Amino acid sequence: MVAAGVMVSLIPGIGSTLPLTKSPFFRRSSTISLRFISENTKRLEQQGHAIRCNFNHPGYQIQEEGQISPWHDIPLHVGNGVFNFVAEISKDSNLRMELATDELYTPLKQDKIRGRIRCNMKWNYGLLPQTWEDPSSANPEVDGAFGDNDPVDVVEIGSTCAKVGEVLRVKPLATLALIDEGQLDWKIIAVSLDDPRCSLVDDVHDIEKYFPATLTAISEFFRDYKVYDGIPGNKFGLGNKPANKDYAVKVIRETNEAWTKLVTRSISAGQEFITWTLLNASSACS
After folding, report:
1. Which Pfam families does the entry link to (predicted)?
2. How far apart are CA 40 and CA 4, in angstroms?
3. What distance lies between CA 137 and its chain's CA centroid?
């Protein structure tokens, strides 16, 4: 049984410089919102895993009503090399939440791939809105691997525990070219602008100094996290090392361009579930 979670609208405040984008998924109404869904929400709330949205931006106020897609309607760019990040899994959580790309408005839902719901995530984990890893495009710099048909993932390494659905402003520091079951699955390593150490780190070489052993721990986690399902360990491209900030920004730019082509229907969707989402979203906008 699927229970509806919290619905929160984001309304630009006076003088806001970060308007929400009207993508083809935008539902025409006077207000706009994030709709997050979880299986058995009541039980999750009793366990302290309530589904919440907190758009952490001073130019917006919260109001209940309306719907948007957290993937397609939250803007990617904040400005000055800063990006919006939507948290799917809270730091130190064992509850695996994931964007449901095959559903209208792409809500966050409990992921039960292979029957497991636990993930033991040690960092805030989520996605960059308005990005897409194109499954029809082979990357010559990463062993010719094709994109995994999802938005780009982010590992936010700050000290604060983000709520599921919370939108944080983050600064990218590095990226890992994870090859997960043969597909390219970029992992952007970033830090929240609200973290006390944010001003101290600006690139991959700063991470070890101010966040000791974090890069190694992240690499080992994503290398081995499917081994328990009987799947061989994952591999990494780019010389098996994290790439620097400039490369991470390049990945973000290219996947944002791919997303733009996807939602403007100028590129093939690659898999039926993306096409299904596009068609249903179009009908909802009419």
Report:
1. Pyrophosphatase
2. 9
3. 20
Distances (CA, A) of 154 to 10, 76, 190, 191: 22, 13, 7, 10
C-alpha to C-alpha distance for 49 and 250, rounded to whole angstroms = 35
Q: How many angstroms separate the first and last alpha carbons of the chain?
A: 29
Taking each helix axis from N to C end, the angle separating 272-285 and 245-263, rounded to the nearest 10 degrees, works out to 60
Q: Would the pTM of this model clear 0.90, i.e. be above it?
A: no
Bridge partners for 236 per DSSP: 178
